[in-house]
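Hey team,

Sharing the ADP,ATP carrier protein run so nobody has to redo it. Sequence (618 residues) first:
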Amino acid sequence: MEAVLKSRGLLSLPPNPTRATSLLNPSQGLKQRLFASKPLGLNGLSLSFKRIPSVVAKSNGLSPKGKNFICKAEAAAAADDGQPLIGESEKPKFLGIELVTLKKIIPLGLMFFCILFNYTILRDTKDVLVVTAKGSSAEIIPFLKTWVNLPMAVGFMLLYTKLADVLSKKALFYTVIVPFIIFFGAFGFLLYPLSNYIHPEALADKLLAVLGPRFLGPLAIFRIWSFCLFYVMAELWGSVVISVLFWGFANQITTVDEAKRFYPLFGLGANVALIFSGRTVKYFSNLRQNLGPGVDGWAISLKGMMSIVVLMGLAICFLYWWVNNFVPLPTRSKKKKEKPKMGTMESLKFLVSSRYIRDLATLVVAYGISINLVEVTWKSKLKAQFPSPNEYSSFMGDFSTGTGIATFTMMLLSQFIFDKYGWGIAATITPTVLLLTGVGFFSLILFGDPLTPALAKFGMTPLLAAVYVGALQNIFSKSAKYSLFDPCKEMAYIPLDEDTKVKGKAAIDVVCNPLGKSGGALIQQFMILTFGSLANSTPYLGGILMVIVFLWLAAARSLDAQFTALRREEELEKEMERAAIPIVSASGSASDTSDSSVKPAAEDSLGSSSETSSQSNI
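Structure output:
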């Protein structure tokens, strides 16, 4: 028995077998056998007993007949490897997963699918409504994001904070999600059919004649106010229902081990939802082809899609109710950890003080500005090519399906890219893709006329070619963002010291995320008001895009050098710790064996790797 234990790297047996026999007396209860005896050898070292089926011990007086036990030098960690304690029955499993876990994960996966299915329909529909509406264009989007969407998002979060103080978690969930479901149902069956009566078309025309065409975007918000309200509610569905409600609920009911194992699968499932919802949008958008003349095909398509949104919303509520009533949920400590908060000025000072954080902030801001500069210009060309709401929506359905397929594929390839080429190459893929496709897109817009004969051989015009290239630009940029850019950004925090890590993330969340999202919109608003229209601003937007992407690439290279240096320092420190820490056996003698010192370091490295992989996939 002693030889077997030593061969497994476990604690040596004490020299007094009679004392060990008393410890292993099965007549004593589990609690007495585990905790009642005095520590052996070193202070603070205790014995915990576990039944290991694979170990067969011969009867030598140390263990009762028919019972096989081994001793392991750990402090009350008997169940860490998933093996049941003595007298504890193993929990039922299916495909190696505990049934209790499956009862949580499957409903969560279905909830996530339904939420993202709805989000894709709403995201495609909101663009169709505000871009193709009479008296509006893609120029409305920058003004809408800055002056309507942002204030309503801030107001909603203030209201949510107040409600969270007075309502239970269940009541808060239903209070938030039910108004969304009611609004989208009412819009499809009530607000849109009445839009001709509730929109101030005549007054908007008079104001446009007075102010001039450069104010087309701001006046369009007033002209089609119900469509703009739909736009904002669709945006809030993405930020509130996905980020706040779903992930808040998921983090509440899952353990850390379950999250590491299953959260990456949610990311893959999200792209499956994107594919199916894109096909759904395509189907309903094509209903117009089977309708007679004089029928508002878009109104019928909208009713069908909003009906699905309502049904999916009700399914989300049912799944939430089922999990809360039929699944045993883990208990959480009521102690709240204080999170360091940084104001805007504190965040700006911290950003300026650290080169590493400045480079990381440049990546975040550059992505937000770049994707907005291209996306709004592309949507203006998309309206010119597909002026009908049904045609526009049908194309957006194909676009969503393509985005889902590309992102799903890139997520599967991302692990190979990180392993093969490292952080630096992975961090430069997203800006490189955006630069190449952006240059092609703006070139077709600005210099497309000489290419007309060549494109005609392929049955395309310069406008249609620009629409396709812009679609590819958006698809590949977003898939690279989800699969590579986001994981790279999160990985960059890992080698930092705890203070810089916490403060740096807080600074970027406070300053850089909003600046990146609104920066592109503010630039476009300035260009539109200065040059009169988005079309006149296109050459300047293309030049600004190139400058921003080159700054992005320079920051990525700089950050890669700093990231690599920090990782090497971290690995060197771990090697020094392994070599310096002596190991003390149970008999009291010191040993240079590195098993015990390696284990904490290895577990720490494994934890960081698992967390990064989970963030990469999500």
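Residues 1-88, 333-339, 583-618 have pLDDT under 50 and may be disordered.

Ping me if you want the raw files.
A.
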